[in-house]
Amino acid sequence: MRVHICAVGRLRLGPEKTLIDDYRGRFDKTGRNLALGPLQFHEVEDKKGGGPSAEAVLLNNAIPGGSLICTLDERGKLISSPQFASLLAQWRDQGQRDISFIIGGADGLDPDLRAKASASLSFGKMVWPHMMARLMLSEQLYRSASILAGSPYHRA
Length: 156
Known about the structure:
By secondary structure, this protein is of the alpha/beta class. The protein contains 5 helices and 5 strands, in the order βαβαβαβαβα. A 5-stranded parallel sheet has the order 2-1-4-3-5.
């Protein structure tokens, strides 16, 4: 199952990109034997400042056809890392070819895009910078693959 992170904004060189690239490589390596991956990033920018509705058009165009959509949203469901791993495995085992995690811009996600999602997850009630959300998602994807592989990385 291919995994996509579709996000508003461009990832610049810096510590976040270094960490994201590290977790991306780890996920791709660990996930390969589990039929997970590769992890691909699709970045969009609304240079005209049209807000969530304009960003939704760009994000919709970035989502691969037939992809299951999971938004990252402060209103989303709070789940544990093992539950997230189980969710990924469930989608994979149901034959889902692509899963797209959607991260909106500074003003959040357009309601119509949120309504198209099959799932919505939250990293807590706090609002996180978009680059940190990408980093945390990348780490959780690697952690999930590690859990599914029986690796000691996750010590619950």
